[in-house]
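Feature request, filed as a ticket because there's no other form

It would be nice if the structure record came with a short human-readable summary line next to the tokens. Right now we just get the raw output. Example of a typical job, pasted below so the devs can see what we mean:
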Amino acid sequence: MQQPTASNLGRLPTTPRAPESVAETGIGKSFLEELLLKILYLSGPLTLVEWAQHARLRLAVVEEIFARLRAQQLCTVTGMTRHIHEVTITSLGRSRALELLSLNQYAGPAPVTLDSYARQVRLQGTRSVEIHSSEMERAFAHLVLDSETLTQLGIALNSGSSILLYGPTGSGKTSIAESLPKAFGEEGVWIPFAVEVDGQIITIYDPLLHKSVDHADWGDPRWVLCHRPAVIAGGELNMKMLDLQFNPVTKFYTGPLQMKANNGVLIVDDFGRQRARPEALLNRWVVPLDRRIDFLTLAGGRKIEIPFELLVVFATNLHPTDLADAAFLRRIPAKVKVGSASPQQFHEIFLRVCREYDLACEPELIDEIIRIIEERMKQPLRACYPRDLVNQVCWAARYEGKTPCLDRETLKRAIEIYFLPPK
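Raw output as currently delivered:
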């Protein structure tokens, strides 16, 4: 599989320009001096180039700050490496760094301003991207969907609004939701490591959620080029997760889920089974869904405005009318039902799973499985069954020390273990 690089991403968004001076960063001199001093204290002696790499700043910016720190006797030069200064912290600088770390332990890449973050997110929004059938077919080629469902999803994406996916458990709603960002193409989006607001830090880039893309050393290094994010929140979702998370130990903020999902998709899985009531979640997002802005509160009570440029996908196995009344449901304009698989779809899913596991399977055997599920187990055909049953066969083979084999005996045992007997 081809590794994602800037060259095969297709159209790239407007690249943030790298600042060549402290003034161009938009961040205060004092803040950057304190940040670089903490980095130097925690990392030990560094060359100016290494210092710049740690702070994700251009060398010219670090040289400007270095001159100020050196003049204050907070750091000193210990030598030269290829005509580049080697720098270490002084005892005075060490005392100052410890004082700063007691106030704020952030010592990562330099942040960007809130204004530049908001501007970049707006430039990378999905509402201006037109989705056609060809993009949908490419994005969902790995799934088995009927043309009607695919068309409904394409229309919903072009609306740029929220989507409710509902249907029985195991029908593939989560897999569909996770595939939605692919429909926007292979274009990348720029995500900052952190944002600075009134001297406070909000971290955004999360390597567990954001898939970075290798690219040449151009643009502002405070930003990471990533694929459009797909952030999933399940039953653990509560209202606190939708606001800034302040760590009392490190004393800086982590951006909420919707901030990390900007320019991508936020999937609320198992909607209706969260700790927060569905009405509370929908009330929280009335303004963001309507006006594309969100308001977050800092510890001191100050509210900040951030863009809400993301697609919110609610996935549930409950009926929509059991979740909220008509007034709430109206704010989710696209409601797509994901039903059980047809026998033809079940066949195709089963064969794809077998190919993935390098297992041979006769079509007649799949027909027999369908008859057992529908007639004996009294269950509808669900998209999750093929993989779940094949997994049962593989686990049994591992237990017995055999090579996995799909036949009537192994599948019969898998069905007996997997399904509850009908009432």
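Something like this underneath would help us a lot:
DSSP finds 18 helices and 17 strands in the chain.
The longest strand covers residues 75-81.
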